[in-house]
Write a structure and sequence with these properties.
Blueprint lengths: L1 H22 L1 H10 L6 H31 L10 H7 L5
Helix pairs in contact: 1-2, 1-3
């Protein structure tokens, strides 16, 4: 039971970080302040933002796999650099 609680805690933290990474921490704080009129909106809004963030990362990776094959170029585009995707999130390479 404790392990399941920690897994859910990690998932919730990942959702908030993903949402903040997508729109910025200041914008996330602003959204959370304005949801006081409808508190149930907090997990819904944060969950949707997190889904958008992870979908965007997935689509960028898929696009980067398709783009070099279509263009025939040996040099990948700068936006398709694999290190850039990780550096967006603060991870060092």
């Amino acid at each position: 039971m404790t392990r399941a609680w920690w897994k859910l805690n990690d998932l919730a933290a990942a959702m908030y970080v993903a949402a903040a990474s997508l729109i910025g921490f200041e914008a996330l704080a602003l959204i959370l302040v304005f949801t006081t009129a409808w508190p149930i909106a907090i997990p819904i809004v944060v969950g949707l933002l997190a889904l958008l963030f992870f979908a965007r990362r997935f689509l960028v990776r898929v696009w980067c796999l398709i783009l070099p094959a279509r263009s025939g170029s040996k040099n990948p585009e700068p936006e398709c650099d694999g290190n850039r995707i990780e550096s967006e999130n603060g991870a060092s390479s």
